[in-house]
Write a structure and sequence with these properties.
The protein is an alpha/beta fold. α5 (about 115-130) crosses α8 (about 170-185). The chain folds into two domains: about 5-115 and about 315-335, Rossmann fold, CATH 3.40.50.720; about 115-305, Rossmann fold. It has helices at about 20-25, 55-60, 75-80, 100, 115-130, 135-140, 150, 170-185, 215-225, 245-250, 270-275, 320-335; strands spanning about 5, 35, 65-70, 85, 105-110, 165-170, 185-190, 210-215, 230, 255-260, 280-285, 305. It is built from twelve helices and twelve strands. Helices cover about 30% and strands about 15% of the residues. α8 links the parallel β6 (about 165-170) and β7 (about 185-190).
Length: about 350
């Protein structure tokens, strides 16, 4: 008998696996498949865990499919019959071990599943600065009627419809951001890694109404033209440090940088310097180079920075979208069709 192993019992209550999700995934399997839902707690933070419990390892013999948070090397070493592995995380960096790179196993992720809540977090941060809520917070903290920053001739309070939003990484999350800010009238520019996808198709026409740019020249345009620069690209060797000191220097003095991807994409020290010197309007940061953010970090003391503790994906809507993806891919797997969200192991996303 062949089997599917479901290992998504996250320790955090908001990500706890609901009973209906287990039932729907089980019902999508043929009657002759064994289904094991692992009871041991796992860790879905970031890219997921690189460790597996003894319960998971004991369940692997005979498994063709594994669903978890991250794919540990031991899974591939001991799961000789695995044909498809899926991570409920969007990030895959920790899963791209030498064992994964050498394996022929199909690997899918949850890219796009976290898009709606992350995009709404971005929108909240954009509007926070657009409407001067940081000034209002400063006034409240001091118990003063703090309207002077709003009335200044150079006040950085604006309408989104008169703004340019640049999106660094026009994938699932970036696309969700794009249509939301476009609905409010913003001009949108999006940077994509390459002009064609792995199948050779033009990837520049995938997001309606977005001006798509590429490469170093496109990144320079994105930085120099954006009122709000949104970082949503995956963390790969190519994107590490992509928002460098040089890129930050190209940004407008009243621009805002927002990062909901990974802290490693930004030169954090250079960002702090820019904010302290008033060379940027502000920053909205959900992710950092070191997490938790150390209590003595300079970012805590800057009034023009919004800090959230890597929670932009949090939502009660996750499991509905995640189960729909898993069930659809099970149908595709069983019928021999191409799976959704296949990870390009060499590209790193």
């Amino acid at each position: 008998m062949t089997k599917l192993v479901l290992d998504v019992n996250d320790r955090r209550p908001v990500w706890a696996l609901p009973d209906w999700a287990v039932a729907e995934i089980r019902s999508a399997l043929p009657d002759d498949w064994e289904f094991i839902s692992v009871g041991a707690e796992t860790e879905g933070t970031g890219d997921g865990s690189t460790r597996v419990s003894p319960e998971v390892l004991a369940a692997l013999p005979g498994a063709r499919v594994y669903v978890g948070y991250g794919i540990a090397p031991e899974l591939l070493d001991q799961g000789e019959g695995l044909e498809w592995v899926h991570t409920a995380s969007a990030g895959v960096g920790k899963s791209l071990s030498p064992e994964m790179l050498e394996s022929a196993v199909l690997f899918t992720n949850s890219a796009g599943i976290h898009g709606p809540p992350m995009a709404e977090t971005v929108l909240a941060m954009v509007l926070h600065f657009a409407r001067g809520l940081d000034f209002a917070e400063q006034g409240k903290a001091s118990r003063i009627w703090h309207n002077a920053p709003f009335y200044d001739a150079a006040a950085p309070v604006r309408e989104l419809a008169h703004s340019t939003v640049g999106i660094l990484g026009l994938g699932g999350v970036g696309g969700e951001v794009a249509w939301r800010v476009r609905a409010l009238g913003a001009r949108v520019i999006g940077l994509k890694r390459r002009r064609v996808d792995a199948a050779g198709r033009d990837s520049g026409s995938t997001v309606d109404g977005v001006e798509v740019v590429y490469g170093a020249e496109g990144l320079a345009r994105l930085a120099s033209e954006s009122d709000y620069l949104i970082v949503t690209a995956p963390h790969t060797e190519d994107t590490r440090g992509i928002v460098s000191r040089e890129v930050l220097a190209l940004m407008k003095r009243d621009a805002v940088l927002i990062n909901v991807s990974r802290g490693a994409l930004i030169d954090e020290a250079a960002l702090v310097e820019s904010l302290q010197a008033g060379r940027l309007r502000g920053a909205g940061l959900d992710v950092f180079s070191v997490e938790p953010l150390p209590e003595d970090h300079d970012l805590w003391n800057l009034p023009n920075v919004v800090i959230t503790p890597h929670v932009s994906p949090v939502t009660r809507g996750f499991w509905r979208r995640e189960v729909d993806l898993i069930v659809d891919n099970l149908d595709r797997f069983l019928s021999g069709r191409t799976l959704r969200n296949l990870v390009d192991k060499q590209a790193g996303y």
